[in-house]
Structure formats: C-alpha cells, structure tokens
Specification:
The protein is mostly helical and 144 residues long. It has a domain of 78 residues: Winged helix-like DNA-binding domain superfamily/Winged helix DNA-binding domain (Arc Repressor Mutant, subunit A). The radius of gyration is 30 Å and the shape is rod-shaped. The N terminus is likely disordered.
Amino acid sequence: MTAQVPAGVTAQADDELWSAIADPSRRQVLDLLVSNGEVSASWLAGRVPFSRQAVSKHLVVLERAGLLSRRKQGREVLYQVEAERLDQATRAMARLAARWDQRLAMIKRLAEAAHAESQAHAERQAHAERQAHAEDQRRNRHEG
C-alpha cells in the first residue's frame, strides 16, 4: 500500500510533509530507512531509543506524508523510502531556504540602509550643533 502524493503537491500534503520531518525521531527513522533500504518496524525499533509502538506511529506519519511505502512479505510488513517524494521534499526545502535567504538579505539591506541613514542624520546633527556653537562664539566675541 503506497501513499500517493499528487504531482502538484497540495498545501495539505506540504503541511503533512513539514510536520512529518519536523520531528527528530521521525527523521531518525527516515535516516535509517534511507541508509538500510527496506526494513521492518521491528528492525527499526531495535535501532532507535524509543518503543516499537512509537516507531509504528512515526511510520504512519511518514507514510501519510508520502515519504514511505510498505509492502507485506509473509507476516512481515516492510517499509521503504519513496525516493521521488523525498526528492520533492529536498527540492521544497531548498526552495524554502532560498526564499529565506532572499528575505534575510532584504532585511540586512534595510537594516544597513537604516543604519547608514541614522549615522548620516547624527553627522548632520553634530555638524549643525558645531555650526551653532561656532556662531554663538562669534556672537559672543562681537558682543563682548
């Protein structure tokens, strides 16, 4: 039974994907599947610091997100990574990272511009104060 994700990944599918990979325990299960290919939940449970029941719950979430598929072999259920969906996830993360890089670069430019403007304003203010002080001194000399 393979969880199918449409080619035009929906917002709900994206939310399920982000939710699925946000959990460190699920990422650990996913890493084991990527590294070891098709394995059973029992095999996974022997290699993680959480219960077989927790492994099963994580597998359900990963499968719902389309990251895993399973097949029955005799009495055993074997899980494997859906490479195409994992590639989609990787590309989605790269796009998201690029958007955040753009946003952060814009924030940096705005902050630098605001800082430069603030410094220019402070310099103009200091210059005006120096001129006013010099004018006061000239006036005092002429009056005195």
